[in-house]
Amino acid sequence: MIWNLLIVLCAFIGMELFSGFFHKYIMHGILWRIHKTHHVHGKGFFELNDIFSLTFGAIATLLVLLGSEGFDWRFWVGIGIITYGAVYFVVHDIFIHRRIKWIEHSNLRYLQALRRAHKAHHAYTECNPGEEYGLLWIGKKYWSK
Ligand SMILES: [Zn+2]
Ligand SMILES: [Zn+2]
User: Fold this and answer.
1) Considering every ligand atom, which ligand is closest to the CA of 115?
2) In this predicted model, what pLDDT tens digit does every residue of 79-101 receive, in sequence order?
3) Ligand 2 centroid from CA 58, angstroms
4) How far is the CA of 88 from the centre of ligand 2 (A)?
């Protein structure tokens, strides 16, 4: 069991690293036309950028299904990605962007710093340059007001 939890944890941390990389070099690169819909806000609830979450969700679901017979590593990697996706959705879509009006404020310094870091990312509306591409692992400077 401990190994499975370790796989979940590694997948979770791996997703933060991977998504930071993917965000910086792919979304703010060749796929900027899609990601742009998240930086330049339209009025609708959905944005074309949601396609990324859907794709990662589909890959994770597939891994869970493929690994569900013997609960092998694919199952746990899928669980790790889904957990990351859920945290990402709550922090990024609900807490920071308030797509659903649920969590308005937080006294947690970490969450305040996260929001500050991501708002700094959104201060840029062009493909390049930019800053703070990761979500949960943020630079030190955002911790102080
Ligand atoms: Zn971006
Ligand atoms: Zn955002």
Assistant:
1) 2
2) 999 999 999 999 999 999 999 99
3) 21
4) 10
